Amino acid sequence: MAGESRPVDVELAELLRRAYGPGADIAADPAAQRRLRALEAGEGEAPADPPEQGAIPTDASSAPAPLDDAPTPQETGEGARAPASTGPFWRRNLPWAITIAAVTLALAAGAALVAAEISRPRAELTLTSRLLPSDAIVPGISTTTLNTWGIPPGALSYHGQVGALDVWTMTNGSDAACLLLSTDGSFYKQSCSRRPLEPQIDVLADPDLIPPGSIDPAVPPGSTVRIALVDAVVEVFIARPPADTGT
């Protein structure tokens, strides 16, 4: 009695798992690779059981072919080369699927970057370090602040004004920086931090500190004015209250 053969679909599924599934190990098994290619090309049908010894073939196709002078396919040129199998549908279209997925992801990422760039607030003022004007009054800096952040005396740098507020910065030259605001030489607010965080101060605008016409466009009372040290410059961001539509 002929031995039972392993179902082709079960064998193909196992080889596909070894080739593309978790823990794929077919790369180290050349025989399994050849078998997978044969099955994918449709050449892996299980061979028919051989006839038992002494059996008489009943199918005419199993009888010996008659000898005649008919030309062979090689002589006529017909069927000299069988068309190559293109493999399973999913295998033929896999590169296209990967390409489409990659393009889709790239477009989505690009759209997200554009949206983030559009929604990111823009600085309305950029203040660089400058010479101290003759009428500016240097505020007193506490020794405790200098010692806490490792900032040497004399590191104070002037960056100009936001409304009536004088803007100052000082750093320890490596990883710590402070942002200070003063008015008429009197200390107003201070923020210090270490990299990668940058010091920043939020000020609620009022006509005495930041007159509406001191910045263009005007800063109405109630606006939030954010003054931030970004790298070596001070940037000013403004969030204005919604306009009154007068319903």
Report on this structure.
This protein is of the alpha+beta class and 247 residues long. The longest helix is centred in the middle third of the chain and has 31 residues, at 89-119. The strands form 2 sheets. The chain has a 4-stranded antiparallel β-sheet, with no helix packed on it. The chain has a 4-stranded antiparallel β-sheet with strand order 2-3-4-5, with no helix packed on it. A hairpin with a 4-residue loop joins strand 3 (165-171) and strand 4. The chain is built from 5 helices and 8 strands, in the order H-H-H-H-E-H-E-E-E-E-E-E-E. It is elongated.
Features:
single chain; about 250 residues; alpha+beta; four-stranded antiparallel beta sheet; 5 helices; 8 strands
Brief overview, please?
Helix 1 crosses helix 2. The longest helix is centred in the middle third of the chain and has 31 residues, at 89-119.
Let me know the average pLDDT: 78
* Number of H/I helices: 5
Radius of gyration computed on alpha carbons: 41 Å
Helix content bin: 25-40%
**What is the oligomeric state here?**
single chain
Span between N and C termini? 95 Å
Total strands: the figure is: 8
Q: Give the biggest beta sheet.
A: 4 strands, antiparallel
Dominant shape: elongated
Strand order in the largest sheet: 1-8-7-6
Q: Which structural class should the secondary elements be placed in?
A: alpha+beta
Strand content: 15-25%
Order of SSEs: HHHHEHEEEEEEE
User: In terms of per-residue confidence, which ranges show pLDDT below 50 for 5 or more consecutive residues?
Assistant: none
